[in-house]
Amino acid sequence: MFFFRLLSRLPLRLLYGLATILYFLLLHVIRYRRRVVIENLRLSFPEKSPQAIRLIARGFYRNLTDLIVETIKMPDLTADELRRRVRFTNPELVRDRLKAGQTVIGMASHQSNWEWIPSASVLNDMPVDSVYKPLTNPFFEELMREVRSSFGAVPTPMNLLPRQMVARKNIPRIIALVADQVPDVPEQAYWTNFLHRDTPFYPGTERLARSRNLPVFYTELVRVGRGRYEVTFTLIGDPPYTDLPAGAILERYRDQLEDTIRRHPADWLWSHKRWKHWRGKYAKVGAKLE
Q1: pLDDT tens digits, residue range 26-43?
Q2: Do the Cβ atoms of 69 and 19 come closer than 8 Å?
Q3: What one-character DSSP code corresponds to residue 169?
């Protein structure tokens, strides 16, 4: 832990120098999940040439290594610096709901630097419970909880979310989920077509929105420069949900995310084994969402 705290004290310009070295090592020496990255890109963008796929892959590794050093830097960033580096284009959409006493759901993704967003939201008067899947390594679990709790965000393990919803029911906030993760139980997932392939999504987000009558916002994160991002909220679900077909919120999230990825393909987490499950293995096509 001491080593990472020491690294966090380095200026970002030096950390970006380390990121450039790490980029070369991951891409050319270690070849970190290179087959997974190329295969994911090739199947997601069948219209693109091999040369274009390789170009996106190189951009992905640059984004990944920048993400690593920016995450390390997070505890040492000042509030003013983080505000300068993360700009919300339309925070009033969410802030007005919170001021009215309403909790909202924010559906984000593994796009650009998703680790900075909860803390940046808190600094912009939007309290956040950041829901995450716990890591199996105790050291890195403790490290990431420290990073994610910077500036007052509340890291919430996925399995403890129901308890947290009760304990903090009177606190208007964003329930932030990185919603493009692979479900642990694919036979209970919601399956839909995403980037040309059958893809399972966690059904719990839509269930939570419907059961608690919570509005849902797609949270788009776009890199506008090295270490600089813009966040835009899009309303994709607003209660009551009595007339909204089951799966509609997840389908809208899918559409928004796919649009973001197509506009900024190098910034998504292509090393993620998003399609390791096969829909044909499971008799159940989609989870019940009502």
Answers
A1: 999 999 999 999 999 999
A2: yes
A3: T
Percent of the chain past pLDDT 70, that is, above it, reads 96
Q: Which two tokens stand for residue 34?
A: 């290179």
DSSP state of 288: -
Residue 216: how many CB atoms within 10 A of its CB?
A: 27
Mean pLDDT value of segment 5-26? 95
Sign of CA dihedral 95, 143, 76, 7: negative
Mean per-residue pLDDT for 265-289? 78
List beta partners, residue 225: 228
Residue carrying the six token digits 């796919």 = 258
Is residue 116 over pLDDT 60? yes
d(CA 222, CA 230) in angstroms, rounded, equals: 5
Radius of gyration of the chain, Cα coordinates, nearest whole angstrom: 19
Separation of alpha carbons 254 and 225, rounded Å: 25
Predicted confidence at residue 1, as pLDDT, reads 67
- Rounded Cα distance, 36 and 14, in Å: 30
Query: Distance between CA atoms of 42 and 61, rounded to whole angstroms?
Result: 16
Model confidence at 283, pLDDT cuts 50, 70, 90, reads very low
* DSSP element (H, E) containing 46: none
Long-range contacts of 275-279 (CB under 8 A, 24+ apart): 275/40, 275/43, 275/197, 275/199, 276/182, 277/182, 277/183, 277/186, 277/189, 277/200, 278/198, 279/191, 279/198, 279/200
Both structure tokens of 165: 């919803």
Exposure string (b/e) for 248-284, b if CB count within 10 Å is 16 or more? ebbbbbbebbeebbeebbbbbbbbbebbebebeebee
**What pTM, to 2 d.p., does this model score?**
0.93
